[in-house]
Inverse folding.
């Protein structure tokens, strides 16, 4: 009986202590809310909403652009089909020349020719007579940028070379463009040559530009080359193209 009475009295004393602590500490004060926050809970400032809206719009545009790019590149690399044939002009306009796809990374096809690409320009002097500049070796500039360079740029290695090979693929032995892509590649080659000549001559203006391409096949190495006649070289002179120092 004495043990039970001790337990009951002990419980009462604990309850009294808890009430004493609560009375000493007082009621917990409620946080004060501003009038605007209390009146419009969850509403964000105008600037935050504008930034979020701009971010959502930019994300939507990036997503749409990515999807369009993937579809057009897929139509470019896929086998010929009614869709790719119908929209070939739109596909080529998007893919060339920046997004061209090929398998050279996995099956490289190095050049078997030593090719020299020369350029000269023509302009009218103060007396109205046409002056023609000497030939300038565009390929030599690229070779000097690649030689003894541990990490040569893609521009120095392939820009001019690929522009010429693409020109030959679309024109063949003629210099008359027979398709929209041929016209585009002709303009592409002309602009590259004009920009490089302008950088070489200090920005001096000119009105016309002409290219000359000398191609010499690489001889077969070893003793087999002795029994073969030397491969003929090709010296191709392109017509004069109207251009400025910036290729316009």
């Amino acid at each position: 009986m004495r043990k039970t009475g001790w337990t009951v009295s002990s419980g009462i004393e604990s309850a009294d202590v808890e009430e004493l602590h609560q009375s000493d500490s007082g009621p917990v004060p409620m946080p004060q809310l501003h009038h605007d926050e209390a009146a419009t809970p969850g509403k964000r400032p105008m600037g935050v909403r504008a930034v979020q809206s701009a971010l959502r719009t930019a994300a939507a545009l990036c997503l749409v652009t990515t999807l369009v790019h993937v579809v057009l590149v897929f139509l470019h690399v896929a086998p010929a089909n009614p869709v790719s044939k119908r929209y070939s002009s739109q596909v080529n306009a998007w893919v060339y020349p920046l997004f061209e796809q090929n398998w050279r990374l996995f099956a490289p096809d190095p050049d078997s020719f030593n090719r020299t690409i020369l350029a000269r320009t023509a302009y009218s002097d103060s007396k109205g007579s046409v002056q023609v500049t000497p030939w300038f070796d565009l390929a030599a500039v690229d070779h000097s940028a690649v030689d003894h360079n541990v990490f040569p740029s893609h521009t120095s290695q392939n820009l001019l070379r690929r522009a010429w090979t693409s020109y030959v693929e679309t024109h063949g032995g003629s210099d008359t463009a027979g398709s929209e892509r041929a016209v585009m590649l002709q303009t592409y080659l002309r602009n590259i040559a004009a920009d490089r000549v302008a950088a070489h001559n200090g920005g001096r203006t000119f009105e016309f530009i002409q290219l000359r391409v000398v191609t010499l096949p690489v001889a077969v190495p070893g003793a087999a080359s002795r029994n073969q006649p030397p491969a003929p070289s090709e010296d191709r002179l392109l017509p004069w193209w109207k251009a400025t120092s910036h290729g316009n």
About this structure: The helical segments are 2-25, 35-39, 46-77, 82-86, 88-95, 138-146, 154-171, 180-200. Residues 46-77 form the longest helix (32 residues). DSSP finds eight helices and six strands in the chain.
